[in-house]
Amino acid sequence: MSRDGWEAVIGLEIHVQLQTRTKMFCRCANRYGDPPNTNVCQVCLAHPGVLPVPNRAAVHQAIRVGMALGCTIPSWSQFHRKNYFYPDNPKAYQISQYDSPLCGEGVFHVPAPGGAFEVRLERAHIEEDAAKMIHAGGAGGRLTGSASSVVDFNRAGTPLLEIVTRPDLHSGEDARRFLNLLRATIVAIGASDADMEKGSLRCDANVSVRRVGDTALGTKTELKNMNSFRYLERGINAEIERQIGVLEAGDRVRQATMHYDVATGTVHVLRSKEEANDYRYFPEPDLVPLEPDAALLDELRAALAELPAARIERFVGQYGLPEPIAEALGTGSELARWFEELARLVGDGRLAANWTLGDFSAHLNAAGVVPAESPVTPARMAGLVRLVESGAVGTAAAKQVFAGLVDDPDASAEAIVEARGLGQIGDEAALAAVVDEVVAGNPAQVAQFRAGKVQLLGFFTGQVMRQTGGRAEPKTVQRLLRERLDGS
Fold this sequence. Notes:
Blueprint (H helix, E strand, L loop, with lengths): L1 E2 L2 E12 L38 H13 L11 E4 L9 E4 L9 E5 L6 E12 L3 E5 L11 E5 L6 E7 L6 H17 L12 E11 L9 E6 L2 H20 L7 E6 L4 E7 L9 E2 L10 H9 L5 H12 L3 H8 L2 H14 L2 H19 L10 H13 L4 H13 L5 H8 L7 H13 L2 H8 L6 H11 L6 H12 L3
Parallel strand pairs: 11-12
Antiparallel strand pairs: 1-2, 2-9, 2-10, 3-4, 3-14, 5-6, 6-9, 7-8, 10-11, 12-13
Helix pairs in contact: 2-3, 5-6, 7-8, 7-9, 9-10, 12-14, 12-15, 14-15
């Protein structure tokens, strides 16, 4: 994003809770939504004398994410202690990684309508999550202004992967697009549900601005606690505008943690960050280094399915879809599979895309289900598509047939058409009688049409469709109407 000679520079820090049965360093259940402080033990509560034991599944999940994001996987990495005191951290340190992360540098490819772009990844390291602080009485559940705070330790020790990008993004829109595809990639490989509402995906944005052409980075601020892709985009854009305004007024941007107020669309300072925190990292003495061998890496890499970015680009090439359509279909694995099966059955990718993103997606949203839970299978939908393409069913009647497919999981499209009498009326004599009746019943509109108001053809067509229950064949109707209306 650039405005009046300014350029935004954005980097993201993303935290992803990994999908495992147990926590990172103990055997407590890693499960969302349980009653507070029920999934806890001496390890995650930091009782004296206990020792951590790494979760093998969490390490494997983290490596798979790193591979999917294009990161290098070093043959050696190490845990560190990150020292800080806060009520959500009973040990007074967090087991994390510092200068030897599990996943090293990488490049993530992002397809986009204006041309694909790449985001360099600095690292992805594994750590344990903190407990959840709940502030009572504060605005929006925040600490500021709260009357009291309580701690739920169920989240303490949850396996967490922190992904850090280079400052390669330049607008809120690019950040949203990147994060959306990154989330889809993580979900596709089964490493996390990456649900921002549940907190299993969290994102902070480091934002600065500089003059176009400058190479030095400006002073950055950190936007925290953005809980949706839309708010991430809006918050970043609001902070960009704020920083430009500060600099154009002759002031300087001060390093700070910022909060985006979704109600007002503005950002304000949460706390100053003029001095960097010193976490006094040192190697974790109770854990040995991680040394994944080549055989393990080959096994994990071979198990990765087709990733969303590659699938989107394949849909563009294989089916000739515009990039936005390919993105809408290819981002989610389930919808992509449903679409491809429909495309195979009807033999037309563009046609299948229209039906998938039209009636079928509207049904999924209305019912709150995923494709696998819908009674409308690709085979049943293909039956409806064939009826429409052959002219046996009109567009209006097709919506009624689709509703029938949803209501009756055992009925075929052909059976619904026959049972409800939804077949398209193509008999010219029958349609001519309806057309004559419509023309005779609307003399004022006929006069206006003949006076040059030709757009009224749509009005007459609609009247015929209404009288035939949407079953009239449109081309025949319009031809008959023109013959009647063009006469004197």
